């Protein structure tokens, strides 16, 4: 069997934004599943970790859809900083999502030492899971049509740009 030629190229930002959005939706769905069960008080830390991570990925998908590079996202300034991710998103035109700012600031403070993942001694006084769900759902419903449109356009452009590469394996270089 002949070896398939590999072509390396950077992943288009719009496609990456769409992938971040899909992953955010998975975390949001997992949060809803876990927090909606009969033992919702049984798993507080996993619930809030899923809420924080879904929020982070939704904000990152919006940022990437609006031109923020992978390198900028992984840099020390933004990385996992919910407040900075929200502030940058707001500067780039994220529509107002009710209670998102105080929600982000509250969860960022509570998770400043990764308190939802590791024991830190922080005495957590967290918002109700139902309130978290309402804010994250509103963020998702705001971001999803913006990011999906950009992701779809990027996918169409990528198909057009790579039409001559049929039969070759494409690997992202970034």
What form results from the Cα inertia axes? Answer: elongated
The CATH homologous superfamily: Nucleotidyltransferases  domain 2
Helix content: 55-70%
Q: In order across it, which strands form the biggest sheet?
A: 1-2
Share of residues in strands? under 5%
Oligomer: single chain
SS class: mainly alpha
Distance between the termini: 29 Å
The CATH class name reads Mainly Alpha
Overall pLDDT score: 91
SSE order, one letter for each helix or strand: EHHHHHHE
Characterise the protein shown here:
The chain has 174 residues and is mainly alpha-helical. It is 60% helix and 5% strand. It has a single domain, classed as Nucleotidyltransferases  domain 2 (Four Helix Bundle (Hemerythrin (Met), subunit A), Up-down Bundle). It is elongated, with a radius of gyration of 18 Å.
């Amino acid at each position: 069997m002949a070896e398939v030629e590999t072509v390396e190229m950077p992943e288009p930002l719009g496609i990456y934004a769409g992938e971040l959005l899909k992953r955010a939706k998975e975390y949001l769905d997992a949060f809803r599943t876990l927090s909606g069960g009969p033992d919702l008080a049984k798993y507080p830390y996993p619930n809030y970790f899923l809420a924080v991570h879904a929020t982070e990925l939704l904000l990152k998908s919006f940022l990437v859809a609006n031109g923020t590079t992978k390198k900028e996202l992984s840099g020390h300034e933004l990385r996992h900083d919910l407040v900075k991710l929200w502030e940058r998103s707001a500067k780039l035109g994220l529509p107002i999502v009710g209670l998102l700012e105080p929600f982000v600031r509250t969860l960022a403070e509570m998770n400043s030492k990764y308190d939802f993942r590791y024991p830190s001694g922080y005495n957590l006084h967290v918002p109700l899971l139902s309130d978290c769900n309402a804010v994250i759902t509103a963020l998702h419903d705001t971001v999803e049509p913006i990011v999906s449109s950009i992701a779809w356009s990027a996918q169409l452009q990528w198909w057009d740009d790579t039409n001559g590469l049929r039969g070759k394996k494409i690997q992202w270089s970034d």
